[in-house]
Amino acid sequence: MSAELLLALIPLVPILAGFGIIAARARPNLREGVSIAAGVILFLLVATLATTIDWAAPPTLVLAEPFPGLSLSLTPEPLGVLFALVASLLWPITTLYAVGYMRAHHEQNQTRFYTAFAISIAATMCIALAGNMLTLFVFYEVLSVATYPLVTHAGTEKAKRAGRVYLGLLMGTSIGFLLLAMIWTWSITGTLDFTPGGIFGDEVSNGVLGILLLLYVFGTGKAALMPFHRWLPAAMVAPTPVSALLHAVAVVKAGVFTVLKVSVYIFGIDRVGQLAAADWLVVIAALTIVLASAIALQKDNFKARLAYSTVSQLSYITLGAMLGIAAGAIGGGLHIAMHAFGKITLFFCAGAVLVTAHKSKISELNGIGRRMPWTMGAFAIGALSMIGAPPLAGFISKWYLFGGALQTEQWIAVGAIVISTLLNAAYFMPIVYAAFFREEDPGHGHVEHGEAPLPIVLALVTTALFTILVFFFPGVPLTLVQQMAGG
Amino acid sequence: MIEIPGLFNYWVVVFLMMAGFYVVISQGNLVKKLVGLGLFQASVFILYITMGNLSGGQAPIVTEGVFVYSNPLPHVLILTAIVVGVATTAVGLALVVRIHEAYGTVEEDEIHSLDMADEETPREEDNRPGESRE
Amino acid sequence: MTLLDHLPVLVVLIPLMTAPLCVLVDRPRASWIMALAAAWLSFASAIALALTVATSGTLTYQLGGWPPPWGIEYRIDTLASYVVLIVTAMAALVMLFAKESVAREIPERRIARFYATLMLAFAGLVGIVATGDAFNVFVFLEISSLASYALISMGRDRRALNAAFQYLVMGTIGATFILIGIGFLYMMTGTLNMLDLAARLPEVSDSRTVRAGFAFLTVGIGLKLAMFPLHLWLPNAYAYAPSAVTAFLAATATKVAVYVMLRFMLEVFGADFSLGAMPLDLILMGLGLIGIIMASLVAVFQDDIKRMLAYSSVAQIGYMLLGIGLASATGVGAAILHIFNHALMKGALFLALGAVAYRIGAVTLGDFAGLGKRMPWTMAAIAIGGLSLIGVPPTVGFVSKWYLVLATLEQGLWPIAVLILIGSLLALVYIWRLIEAAYFGAVAADAPEVREAPASMLIPIWILVAANIYFGINTDISVGAAMQAATMLMGDGG
After folding, report:
1. ∠ CA C479-C485-C489 to the nearest 5 degrees?
2. Mean of the pLDDT values across residues B108-115?
3. How far is CA C335 from CA A423, C75, C118, C304, in A?
4. Radius of gyration of chain B (CA)
5. A65 to chain C: nearest residue by CA?
6. A436 interface with C at CB cutoff 8 Å
7. CA dist list (Å): C278 to C211, C214, C218
8. Does the pLDDT at position B130 exceed 50?
9. Are the C-beta atoms of C218 and C280 separated by less than 8 Å?
């Protein structure tokens, strides 16, 4: 099929799935089947696009032209295709996980849940394939609104308040900073198309660009750069499948993806390297990495610890983008994929523990490895990937990031990567140790239980396997990202 | 200083306008407000009509031997404006009658305190006397 | 002359003639049908008008065959056809909605006269836009205003009476100021035809009379516009009026006043005089900004949702005034565009509120608890309308914000751009209070059973909601016409 048709189908499939889910609401198995089938089809479509695309002449699909000279269009480029591959691969797996989770947890409003999920994935696909900043912004906002019902799924007072922080921070930054930056860019350059090497000519001063860069990066609230990171721990009130796919993969990656796209295609890697503001952002990203890891160390709530770990890991990507050299951008782009596989595994495990053992605190996890060997085994693999140990995915991206930081002699960045690696080990390894090598504590409201439900175990084993596989077969992500940085 | 008698009509206009405006603002009685409004509008009528008068001008009816007529257009405009003023006063007075039916008073401060009391202890939805619910 | 030649006056005459018919027939159902037919016929004429103007340029019509500047002339140019289209479209949709709503809120014996008054207000509003004669503007302004006072007073709550009275007093003062302003202009130029005035004013524009006339006109129109601080009549009037009336007036009355401001300030006086020699640009920018921030802040604390949206309207008008005050083609174009977009947004929101009032009887924040489940379509409409108000893409609100921010950045006024975006964030706060109440609130145990609104209400609501999204994506018509009108106004400059 033609490339344009592929581009049109990719967002269309999840939207149609949304309708299908609503139509099938009376029959849960059929309803979930629609989700999974759509996910598989979507991944096949994206994979087809990735393998058949002619990078010299990529296809473009114009959806509409709301402003004269500015259209809503989809134009794939390497980083976006990588992002789309990861998200579309993980959607059906997460749906499988969600089946186990939502049913074991007897959750209400499941139709609303799966429908909002589908719409969020559609928005994510459009973000990934966006051809210009306007398209990215429009679907970025749609994603914020579409994920709100997912975050506030529980419908409790606590969920409502978390929803306020979530939407308040995300919309506040996007309307207050990102929109301003975008319109300003348009008025200066007359274009918002993603162009390798950037769209600003030499006549635009570095001072103006510096302010714009700050507006863009702080305006991307989904990248969870401090001090606008609070929405991520607040969003943990959502059911774990939401935390897993959206807040380990789709939403947060949309954020750092935006930061990378802006730095590579709006400013251009070289131009970023010349800006003093970028150096400041490197410092802020470094601070976020270390501070968030330090906070994670103190959190006893399982999901909270994972949330702060995510905040920290996201800033690796922001750091890479702001280094101003190709290696940084490559490392950042790779980390989008690597971190996704690792983190989703970790969240899957947290949810499995919640649903099976009804435990949400790390201090309660002693000896749980014996009852849930698959779950905690996968957790160990995911944790090692986060730390960056070979032979796991996280090692590759950390390698590039570290190399990039050394190359630019930004010692703060180097220091942050080193310290956070140590901190990662400090807050992940004790969990693994306690799970396998400590005795169980019968006091804590203990429940007799075995391994998690089968769909859950299948999902987390699959993602853990990917974490290992990607280390040995990094070809696809690596070539894509190198193309982005070089081309 | 010599101009002041020549601008006599404008002085009258300004005086009436300010008097009417003051009555609207300062009086609490709704009927008196309408009186002030009428004064205010009357001043504008006088403004228009007097501006149409030419020195030495005759009434604008075609007559033999008369060459300077006062401008008839302002008169026509003011007829329209007077009708509008009459309609406004009529609507205003109708509202005052209904307010009196509903509140029992036409003093602004009393109406205000009755509304405040309403907010403390809410009454039924349709609290208009003389209404028939469909 | 064919029917098409009479179009400019037909749009005004059709509702004007329907009004006495409604009174004569005096039966609720029949008068509704006549009003509905009149509104849709007017809308059709407006579409024909817009198409004709788009292809063959400005249409003129001489009343009674008397040539201007002695006779009264109707001139329909791009801007006028745009606004007439908006007013007639809103009337047509509100009429659809009105059948059930009015039957519930107005006593049966008054319904026929209600529709007659509504037709009068409608005719008056269209007349203001269609005419090319300054005094005619005053006459139609008073026709529509008087009808509005009567309409507002028909609300169920007895506070509607006082609200109507306050509006009457303030509105009459405003209209009289406009009359004074027109009188001063006539004094200096001897003509009342707006085109003729535009030609003759530049020579006498230095005189104090013309400046005084300018000032009076600005204040008078500002009062009708609900420009801060002359907006005090609006919250009460919108809150206590019958639902259909609020929806109609919110979408049309203040917009027509914005049109009058554009016409007088930019065409009659000319952009160079108004925005250059006189400090109107600073005044409009300043008062517009204050209106945006203050009204949005007050809206956050309102419990009565109609009141909250009324303050929101004051803020939105602030945006339009800001656009005009920026004194550029983009700014004025953004303001004209917002006339269209705001009518769509507020029309949808107030109609949806009317549906809620129809089922529940009141619209305070507490009444909204749990409404998301019981009236899903209505609440979804409010949610989308709310997102449009905030300015989230892909709605019309986003397009308006885009052009407004673009206009400020073009002039290098980035602090104002920041303030505009803060206004959006304030809108986020007050809209989200509503959304939270509807979707998170638990239904009270003793709350009566509530069904979804009837189809006759949902259809016009959802037409407007769909328009919100459609014109947010496909902006050729709305933006194209607005920018064209703006360039004509700013370029010609009198």
Report:
1. 140
2. 87
3. 54, 21, 27, 28
4. 22
5. C474
6. no
7. 8, 9, 11
8. no
9. yes
Contact between B92 and C162 using a beta-carbon 8 Å cutoff = no
CA distance C250 to chain B (A): 22
* Chains C and B physically touch (3 or more Cβ atom pairs below 8 Å): yes
Q: Which helix (H) or strand (E) holds A70?
A: strand A70-74
- pLDDT value at residue C445: 63
Provide the mean pLDDT of chain C. Answer: 88
Q: Which of C107, C161, C172 sits opposite B134 (nearest CB)?
A: C107
Residue C456 sits at the chain A interface (C-beta within 8 Å):
no
- Give the three-class secondary structure for A455: helix
Residues A281, A261: Cα–Cα separation, whole Å: 16
A361 vs C94: which has the higher pLDDT = C94
Closest CB from C421, C432, C474 relative to A167: C432
- pLDDT score at C72: 85
Residues 6 or more apart in contact with residue B62 via CB below 8 angstroms: none
Q: Among all residues of chain A, which has the CA nearest to that of C473?
A: A66
Average of per-residue pLDDT across C438-449: 72
Higher pLDDT: A201 or A231? It is A231
- Whether residues A179 and C475 touch (CB distance < 8 A) is answered with no
Contact A66 C421 (CB under 8 A): no
List, for residues C137-162, the tens digit of each pLDDT value.
999 999 999 999 999 999 888 889 99
pLDDT of residue C230 exceeding 50, the answer is yes
Upstream peptide bond of A430 is cis (omega within 30 degrees of 0): no
Q: Which residues of C touch B123 (CB under 8 A)?
A: none
Query: What confidence tier does C446 reach under pLDDT thresholds 50, 70, 90?
Result: low
Look at residues B53, A65, A429, A309 and name the one whose alpha carbon lies nearest to residue C399. A65
Rounded Cα gap, residues C216 and C224, in angstroms: 13
Interface check for C208 against chain B (CB to CB < 8 A): the answer is: no
Distance from C-alpha of A271 to C-alpha of A265, rounded to nearest angstrom: 10
For C281-333, what is each residue's pLDDT tens digit?
Answer: 888 999 999 999 999 999 999 888 999 999 999 999 999 999 998 888 889 99
Other CB atoms within 10 A of residue B133 CB: 8
User: How long, in residues, is chain B?
Assistant: 134
**CB B128 to CB C158 under 8 A?**
yes
Predicted confidence (pLDDT) per residue in C163-192, tens digit: 999 999 999 999 999 999 999 999 888 888
Quick check: A171 and C425 CB within 8 A? yes
For every residue of A250-296, DSSP letters joined together read IHHHHHHHHHHHIIIIII-HHHHHH-HHHHHHHHHHHHHHHHHHHHH
C38 vs C50: CA distance, rounded Å: 18
What 3-state DSSP class applies to C483?
helix
The predicted pLDDT at position C171 comes to 94
Question: How confident is the model at residue B125, as a pLDDT?
Answer: 47
Return the amino acid letter for A441. Answer: D
Q: Provide, as residue numbers in chain B, all residues whose Cβ is less than 8 Å from the Cβ of C173.
A: 21, 24, 37, 40
- β-strand pairing of A70-74 with C59-62: unpaired
Contacts C414 to A, Cβ<8 Å: 180, 184
* CB–CB contact B95 C164 (8 Å): yes
Q: Does C387 touch chain A (CB under 8 A)?
A: yes
Which range in A9-18, A155-164, C164-173 is most confidently predicted, on average pLDDT? C164-173
Longest dimension (CA), chain B: 76
Instruction: Kindly report the backbone phi and psi dihedral angles of residue A399, in degrees, each rounded to the nearest multiple of 5, phi listed first.
Output: -55, -50
CA-based nearest distance C157→chain B, Å: 6
Cis peptide bond N-terminal to C229, omega within 30: yes
Taking Cα atoms as reference points, which of C237, C306, C165 lies closest to residue B103? C165
Chain B nearest-CA residue for C171: B88
Whether C165 sits inside 8 A of B92 (CB atoms) is yes
The SS3 call for residue B29 is strand
> What is the rounded CA–CA span in Å between residue C341 and residue C314?
15
